Amino acid sequence: MSVQVLPPRAYLDTSVFARERELFMREWICVGRETDLAQPGAYFALTVMAQPVVVWRDQQGRLRAFENVCRHRMAVIADGCGVSKYLRCPYHGWTYTDDGKLRAAPQADSYIAGQHIRLPEYRVEIWCGFIFVNLDPHADPLAPRLTQVEKILAPYQAPTFEFSAREIAAPVNANWKLMLEVGLESYHFPYVHKSTLAANLGGAPNSPEGNGSWTVSVEPRTRPLEPQAGHPPGLSKEHRATTYTFGIFPCTVFNVDVDNIVWFTLLPVTESQTASIFGTAARTPELIRILGDDQPTSRENYFEWGARLGAEDNAICERVQAGIRARGARPGPIIRSKENCLYEFQNYLRAQIPEYPLAKEEE
Ligand code: FES
Ligand SMILES: [Fe+2]
């Protein structure tokens, strides 16, 4: 029996979204590269399922994450990104040190003295140069479930990549799962990405099984890359002819090329609106390369390409979200030879959320 794509309810129902919010509260979420917060005091803010979070490198060089909400009248403290030894709430000026402690409260210092007020701290784990946070203090560590991915990536030496950049992309009118799904399969490349990806990637992916926490699609490059100065010796001819697309559940996609990684993490806002972090990393700033291409390009070209690619995927996701609302909308089959990653994603959702709506049960 063929497996079908998720039913409309999975993308539209607020009660399904509420269960997914609980899932995000206990999962590891990839939020950036270590090099995005290179210096002491560097921080960025983000919102994970309505939870404001700030990730901050302390003066000792340790990466920490806190709830980004003031302990006075609960305003969100930091926005965007920056570098600072202290964070100050914009409402009444309460300031916090990089261990989360309240340091000063204008005209109220005598009240706060001895109260040990501090921001709740979240878990942080660094994996392959990426920063992951987890809002659940009791969550199992991340690394053991990604050991196989780490093995595949070992020859790339991704933790040593020098260049990185990340930005928060504006919300798209689509459910977060549609945006993950479009990032996992290459079946749509010849239609959606005619001028951005289709020429570089072969579109004949091999998608071996993940372990329930992740999935991968192995994509042949049209033009394999010649050995380059500065590349690690462990890279084989096969690596140079391949691009990997990993789905790290619940909400991250890594596209790993020989010396470049394009990645995104989805930040659901509502069941039909999703913001995202779009990031990139390269072995060196001189080796920034469009995915699957064999020639380095300028930063400007690269980011222009990234914006086009993102717009192509976003537009198609909004079309699907619009189609799903139709009275007669019915899920069709997952084409396993092309879209197996979607099947693996469904298995993950079902394992994490009992009674998750799957299409076959609704017929
Ligand atoms: S809410 Fe932050 S200082 Fe008042
Ligand atoms: Fe796409």
CATH fold-level label of the largest domain: Naphthalene 1,2-dioxygenase Alpha Subunit, Chain A, domain 1
- Number of helices, counting only DSSP H or I runs of 4 residues or more: 9
Helix content estimate: 10-25%
Structural class: alpha+beta
Q: What ranges have pLDDT less than 50 throughout 5 or more consecutive residues?
A: none
Largest sheet: 7 strands, antiparallel
**CATH class descriptor of the largest domain:** Alpha Beta
CATH second-level architecture of the largest domain: Alpha-Beta Complex
Structurally, the number of domains stands at 2
Overall, the morphology is: globular
Terminal residue distance: 13 Å
Strand segment count: 16
Biggest sheet, spatial arrangement of strands: 1-10-9-4-3-2-5
Short description:
The chain has 363 residues and is α+β, with helices and mostly antiparallel strands.
Structure report:
- A seven-stranded antiparallel sheet has the order 1-10-9-4-3-2-5, with no helix packed on it.
- With 363 residues, it is of the alpha+beta class.
- Helix content is 24%, strand content 27%.
- The chain folds into two domains: 8-25 and 147-359, Alpha-Beta Complex (Naphthalene 1,2-dioxygenase Alpha Subunit, Chain A, domain 1); 29-141, 3-layer Sandwich (Rieske Iron-sulfur Protein).
- It contains nine helices and 16 strands.
- It has helices spanning 8-12, 14-24, 109-112, 147-153, 176-184, 189-192, 237-240, 299-324, 336-352, and strands at 29-33, 42-48, 51-57, 63-67, 81-83, 86-88, 95-97, 102-104, 121-127, 130-134, 163-172, 214-220, 242-248, 252-256, 260-270, 273-282.
- It is globular and about 65 Å long.
- The site of FE2/S2 (inorganic) cluster has 9 residues, from loops.
- Fe (ii) ion binds next to loops.
